[in-house]
Amino acid sequence: MNIPQLDNTYIANTYARFPVTIARGKGSLVWDADDKVYIDMATGIAVNSFGIADPAWIRAVTEQLCTVQHTSNLYYTAPDAQLAQLLCEKTGMKKVFFSNSGAEANECAIKAARKYAADHKGSEYSTIITLKNSFHGRTITTLAATGQDVFHHDFLPLTEGFAYAEANDLDDLKAQVAAHKCAAIMMEVVQGEGGVIPLTQEFVKGAAQLAAEQDLLLICDEVQIGNGRSGKLYGYMHYGITPDIVSTAKGLGGGLPLGATLLGEKVQDVLTPGSHGSTFGGNPVCCAGALSILHRLDGPLLQSVQEKSDFIVSSLTGAKGVKSVTGLGLMLGVETERPVKDVINDCMARGVLVISAKNKVRLLPALNIPMAQLEQAIGVLKDVCAGE
Ligand SMILES: *Cc1c(COP(=O)(O)O)cnc(C)c1O
Fold this sequence. Notes:
The two termini are 37 Å apart. Helices cover 37% and strands 19% of the residues. The protein is α/β, with parallel strands linked by helices. The protein contains 13 helices and 17 strands. A hairpin with a 5-residue loop joins strand 8 and strand 9 (197-198). The site of pyridoxal-5'-phosphate has 15 residues, from helix 5.
């Protein structure tokens, strides 16, 4: 059997894969099994922050790999302690819990919020208000947090204690908060899977104010928009707010699985020995790679992310066959006149990998994609959108 046949025979049928077997890559270029080359505008869904086989990341990872690959959390190790320090120094958050994925980072955020509310207000204050059209993960609890019915059916009953407010509708958020005994409000400042839809300044600031007034925690799910992708270190930094809890994953590890839940002043001591844990969380190899990524997310790099974003937005806005461009930084959604599937397939045929988010073409290039490759990829996308 060839690889697709083997995969289809033995791997659970949860993914509608593209008919491409990726064999190798370098930076923002990937080669398939037939040695056809593509410009990678998807980065494994915002994971490969500095592209494929980035030399500095490989050095950091292999050095740690050859030193000790895993210890369990029963012992101290340097990479996770140093990464936690860097995350706190760069954000002003106070403590970090490490896990292995976005869903787990959100599970920790939800547990921390519930425990804080139970400790301070009573265990009946357990409801977490999330937003309609959100995406927070695939575990039974993060599915419950996800405000999209399509993900829910077939898996009921989900974890109780979630209610959903309309995104960018402060009145609805207030109504939901008033209708429940709440622990927290949880949001992605740019709804990624929901179609790359940024929340408005008014809504995010209003939600932060409401949370402060009502003694609710504000949780920002930065799994996709975080770690430099927005053009700032974290997406919430575009809104002038300070969340109580930040969850992140995807781009943090630069290609190895790593989730992090950042705990602010109020909640820094809520998790106590035995209240949460993970065997693999904070794995030293993953954390060593993440240190290499995070150290490089400095002012000049973030500035270049913003400039590349401006280039994409100005190239595509008003272009033939393009209805709209939304998002922040290098997480952009392009609404096209042609069906999104056709656009993706035609781009792939012409050597450009893009993915979808709902009805949009989603662009998630590496933060350091060379300008010439970005220009070439956007040129192809423009031609495909125009039907040329
Ligand atoms: C991808 C994603 C998740 C889930 O992350 P996994 O690593 O797949 O568990 C959660 N929240 C957001 C906003 C995401 O984009």
